Amino acid sequence: PVAFDWKDPLGASNLFTEEELAISETAESYCQERMLPRVLDAYRNEDYDRKILEEMGELGLLGATIEGYGCAGVSSVASGLITRAVERVDSGYRSGMSVQSSLIMGGIDEFGSQEQKDKFLPQLAKGKMLGCFGLTEPNHGSDPGSMETVAKPHPTKKGYFSLSGAKTWITNSPISDVMLVWAKLQETGKIRGFLVERSECPPGTLETPALKHKNGLRASLTGMIQLDECPVPEANMFPEIEGLRGPFSCLNGARYGIAWGTMGALEDCIARTRQYALERKQFKNNPIAKYQLVQKKLADATTDAAFGILAAVQVGRLKDEGKAAPEMISMIKRQNCDRALVNARILQEVFGGNAVSDEYHIGRHVANLFVTQTYEGQSDIHALILGRAITGLQAFC
Ligand code: TGC
Ligand code: FAD
C-alpha cells in the first residue's frame, strides 16, 4: 500500500509542476534558514527588518506572478507555495510580503499607466522600494465604500491633486516609500487609486505613525497614513479604474495568498505539536501523543490543512485560466483562516503550561491567526459575500 505522509496527507505535491516544486523549495529554505532565526526577537520587540523584502526580492519571490519588470512570472500556485512557506514562519512576515506583492505591485500591474509600471514595479520587485495599501479608515473598515479621504484639485499646484484624510491599520505604512491610497474624487464622488510618494510630500502633508502595542502580528509594522492637503501629481492617479472594483481586484490576489499562507501557519502548528506530544511524557512514562484526545486534535488539524491546501490549489489553477470567481476566493480565505485559527487554538492545549512561553511558537501563531481572520474582509463579511452569491440578496445593510 501507499504510505501515508502526515506532512502531505492528500498528496497535494502530486499536483505541482517541477517548477512549482523548485520554487517552493527555494522559498522554504530561505524562510527556515533566514527568517525563522529572526522571528522571536522581531515579535518580542515589535520590529520588522525591511531587509527581509530586499532578500526576498533578490530571490525573485516578490510580485512573483507578474510578467516582466524583473518579476518571475510564475503560476498562481507557485505564488501560493511562496506564501505558505513565509507564513509557516510568521503571518506578520507574510503580511509584509502580501502588501508588497499583491496589494501594491498587483494594483500597479493591473491598473497602472505604463509610466507608473516602469517607474515603480522594478524597484518594488527588488524590495529596494517598499509599498503599502491604504483602504481602511478609522470610521470605515468592512464598509470602505463610505470612505472620507478626498482628492480635489490642488489650490496652488497646477497638475496636482490635494489629498486629505486618514487611513488606519495599514501594514508597512511607517516604512513605505510609496503608498497606494484610495480616495474619493471630490468632483465625481468616485473612488480612485493614487500613488503617494513619501519623498515628494512637503513637510506636514504626510504622516505615517506606527500603531504600537499590538497583541498579534507583532513581527509586522502597522500604522496610519495621515494626509493633510498632500499634493499628488495627476500622473500618479491610476488612469482608468474607478469605484471599489479597483481595491477589491487587488484584494482578490492578497486574499488568495492568505488562504495558502494560513495553511502554512497551521502546518507549522501541527509539526510542532506532533513533536512536542511525542517527547512529552505523562502517566506511566507514556508520550502524550499516545492518548486518544491528543491524537484527535492532530487528526482534525491535519485534515483541515490537507483540505485547505487542495482547495487553494484548485482556485489557483482556475485563477490562471481566468475562471476564478471572487466568491471562490472569499470561500477559501474564510474557510482557511477560520480552520487555521480554531485548530491552532486547540493544538495549543497540547503544550500545557509551556504554551505560554513564546519559545514554543504556538501562542504566536494563535495570536497572528486571529488577525488573518479579521483583515482583508473579516470572516463574517466573507460569509455575507457568499450568502449574497447563493441567495441573490445582500445582507450588508
Ligand atoms: P459591492 O456593491 O459588493 O461592490 C462594489 C464594486 O466592487 C466590485 N467588486 C469586486 N470587484 C472585483 N473583485 C471583488 N472581489 C469585488 N467585490 C466587489 C463590484 O462588482 C462593484 O463594481 P461596480 O463596477 O459595479 O461598482 O460593494 P459594497 O460596498 O456593497 O461592498 C460590500 C463588501 C462587504 C463586499 C466589501 O465592502 C468588502 O469586501 N469589505 C471588506 C473590506 C476589506 O476587505 N478590506 C480590506 C482592507 S486591505 C487589508 O486588510 C490588507 S491587510 C494586508 C496584510 O497585512 O496582509
Ligand atoms: P469593523 O468593520 O468595524 O467590523 C467589526 C465587526 O463587525 C467584525 O466582526 C465584522 O465582521 C462585523 N460587521 C461589520 N459589518 C457587518 C455587517 N454588515 N454584518 C455583520 N457583521 C458586520 N487595511 C488596509 O486598508 N490596509 C492594510 O494594509 C491593512 N492591514 C491591517 C493589518 C492589521 C494588523 C489589522 C488588524 C488590520 C489591517 N487592515 C488593513 C484593516 C482591516 O482590513 C480591517 O480591520 C478589517 O477590514 C475590518 O474592519 P474594522 O476593523 O473597521 O472592523
Summarize the structure.
The chain has 397 residues and is α+β, with helices and mostly antiparallel strands. It has helices spanning 18-45, 51-58, 76-89, 91-111, 114-126, 245-279, 292-320, 326-348, 362-374, 379-391; strands at residues 67-68, 71-72, 131-134, 150-153, 160-171, 178-185, 191-197, 206-207, 222-233.
Which percent bin holds the helix content? 40-55%
Low-confidence stretches: none
Which structural class matches the secondary elements? Answer: alpha+beta
What coarse outline follows from CA principal-axis ratios? Answer: globular
The gyration radius over C-alpha positions equals 21 Å
Reading the helices and strands in chain order gives: HHEEHHHEEEEEEEHHHHH
Cα(first) to Cα(last) distance is: 54 Å
Helix count equals 10
Largest sheet: 7 strands, mixed
Bound molecule types: 3-thiaglutaryl-CoA, flavin-adenine dinucleotide
Number of strands: 9
β-strand percent reads 5-15%
Taking all residues together, what is the mean pLDDT?
97
How does this structure look, described?
The structure is a single chain. With 397 residues, the chain is α+β, with helices and mostly antiparallel strands. The chain is built from ten helices and nine strands. Strands 3, 4, 5, 6, 7, 8 and 9 form a seven-stranded mixed β-sheet that branches. Strands 1-2 form a two-stranded antiparallel ribbon. Helix 1 runs parallel beside helix 3. It is globular, with a radius of gyration of 21 Å. The termini are far apart. Bound molecules: 3-thiaglutaryl-CoA and flavin-adenine dinucleotide. The site of 3-thiaglutaryl-CoA (TGC) has 26 residues, from helix 4, helix 6 and helix 10.
